[in-house]
Amino acid sequence: MKRLLVIAMIVLLSGCGITTPVKRNFPEVPSELRETCPDLKMTEPTEKISEVVKVVTDNYSQYHECRIKVDAWTEWYNTQKKIADKIDYLDRSMEDRMNKSAEAAKEQHAEIQKNLQIDINKVTDRVDVLERWRFMIVGGAIVVGYVLGNLDILTKFLK
What we know:
Radius of gyration: 45 Å
Shape: rod-shaped
Number of strands: 0
Helix content: over 70%
Number of helices: 4
């Protein structure tokens, strides 16, 4: 019964030592954040201030739209980086705990196996002692049986 228990523990614990790596990829960048900012418009030489103001206003709007995209990109990247870093930290932490647990299980298994071997050796020694006594008793019984069976020959020698 103990051997079956030990074999079952060995089978169960050997499965704990197998790890399967999981590959995580950093998320893809949303397509609207990958668009590059357009070049700013240049003013053509002109004497009309209204045309220059219109180009400057368009450039100013374009700059703010681009800045919003860059800010969104930065926020998205920082958020994703924090999430990825936290996942990596938790993964390492979990792997460390699993390795410690597996090491403790190995040590416990070795201790159980050592104690089991000690018990087997004690039982073996006790069985050896009992077998020696059995052989002595059987040998003595054979001698006594032979003597009792041949008692008439023995009485002839004693007279």
